[in-house]
Design a protein that fits this description.
single chain; mainly alpha; 8 helices; 80% helix
């Protein structure tokens, strides 16, 4: 699981290093989603605070990165729980398509303007891998306890909390459990949708907070 997640982040990071400052706004949003949509949201929210004129372009990059984050979730599910993909994917695809349409609209609105691309942190650092490994194990453990004591209903709370800052750990944890038959695909899909929406709300609140200077 660690190799899978770090590998996806490294792919985006190497693409950034290869393309450098020649990359356009569309690609910056895509690579931001591959590396970390949350980090991208923080970076560009801070940039709008320093350069107010870039707010619309930053809005596109953040939206595009969040859209790609959904694609990343779908890729993870297809790898870890391929037999459950057909059941889990549809609602996530609907949200992703809606966000993609919004991103396309923002892109064409801003296509004649440029935006400074901020260099991302190297996702292959040992600290990154260690944090993810601990988070993944912790979420697996919490899911098992909550499911045992409170049943599937308690997993909604776990999904909301887990999805606030990171989607990889909860996605892989639930996908693994669905593939092993420990939870059914329909319930797992609902938990993932709740987690992903929680993640969007968190990033949206963080963007507002950083942009207004409240944080």
């Amino acid at each position: 699981m660690v190799v899978l997640i770090v590998g996806m982040g490294v792919t985006g990071y190497f693409a950034y290093k290869w393309l450098g400052d020649t990359m356009g706004t569309a690609l910056s949003g895509i690579l931001g989603g591959l590396i970390s949509s949350t980090a991208t949201s923080v970076t560009y929210s801070k940039q709008t605070k320093e350069t107010p004129s870039s707010i619309r372009l930053a809005g596109f990059v953040i939206m595009a990165a969040s859209t790609i984050a959904f694609a990343r979730i779908l890729i993870e599910i297809s790898i870890v729980a391929p037999r459950q993909f057909g059941v889990v994917a549809p609602p996530l695809v609907v949200v992703m398509v809606f966000m993609a349409l919004v991103s396309v609209g923002l892109f064409y609105y801003n296509k004649n303007k440029g935006i400074q691309v901020n260099e991302p942190e190297n996702p292959a650092q040992f600290k990154t891998a260690l944090v993810f490994a601990i988070l993944y194990a912790a979420i697996l453990f919490v899911i098992a306890i909550v499911k045992d004591y409170y049943g599937n209903e308690g997993l909604y709370v776990v999904s909301v909390i887990s999805g606030l800052t990171d989607m990889d750990a909860i996605t892989l944890s639930l996908s693994n459990m669905m593939e092993d038959g420990r939870i059914d695909a329909t319930s797992g899909g609902r938990f993932l949708l709740v987690a992903s929406l929680s993640n969007l709300v968190f990033k949206g609140g963080m963007v507002v907070c950083l942009d207004t200077g409240a944080c």
